[in-house]
Amino acid sequence: MPTDGLPSDPYALAKVAASAILERFDIARLDAAFVLGSGWSAAADDLGESIGSCELAELPGFARPTVVGHGGALRIVITSAGKIAAIFTGRTHLYEGYGPARVVHGVRTAIGAGAGVIVLTNGCGCLNPEWPPGSTVLIRDHINLTGNTPLVGARFIDLSTAYSRRLRDLARSVDPGLPEGVYVQFGGPQFETPAEVRMAGALGGDLVGMSTTLETIAARELGAEVLGISLVTNLAAGISPDPLSHEEVLEAGREAAPRLRQLLAGIAAGL
After folding, report:
1. Domain extent listing, the chain
2. Phi, psi values for residue 95, rounded to 5°
3. What is the pLDDT of residues 104-141, one digit of tens each?
4. In which band, very low, low, confident or very high, does the pLDDT at 64 lie, cut at 50, 70 and 90?
5. Does domain 10-270 have CATH number 3.40.50.1580?
6. What is the pTM of this model?
7. Is 58 a residue of the active site?
8. β-pairing, 84-88 with 32-35?
9. Does the pLDDT value for residue 251 go beyond 80?
10. Dihedral sign, CA of 188, 192, 193, 198?
11. Catalytic option among 23, 55, 180, 192
């Protein structure tokens, strides 16, 4: 982690970053945080009235985004329900080489600033042909195949209810037709092979991607509720007849933008 005089301990660094956010935006605390993954950036515009924004890289411990189409800003808004929310228009991925602590730094920072609810979104591949590209799926559970964890040492946490049923019910009050599935995280950055997709399905997975599970682990360790939502951007390898591409992911997000904005705005209003 940092070598520029900032704490090397990731928990202490998150506290420093949390204090920097509260001071910079002159707020007492955060109530919630939204992490907007691939395809979700347009949804930021309807989450509340802006208090302010900055580039994430201006805050302690955050890195600049390295992937085209992944945002790198922090917005602070007040929702229609009067809650203060942080919106991360992008995230650090494990494949960028920074390690798990940097991947979950945004989540730990938001919770350190008071956020009790973390909404994690992503773009993903799908194993279920009944959920075509453009579908939105609530994450009921996950399988972490990265071989990594943000926890160090004997930090034993219960993940039997990693994704909040209360928050999933809230999401369905906005969009009653939302299905639920199991999200499987691979390390990336390469897309999964057909054999890896078959393995994910055999393990019980419905969705495959490169984010979210490590952030969920970090959030649950600190006691925050987690809502995970996936945008299906493509059918997974071996199911789709077409080659996979990052451009396909971004295009699916653009086409689904109005529905994603309505969903997240409704969730924000109900927190």
Report:
1. 10-270
2. -70, -10
3. 999 999 999 999 999 999 999 999 999 988 899 999 99
4. confident
5. yes
6. 0.94
7. no
8. parallel
9. no
10. positive
11. 192
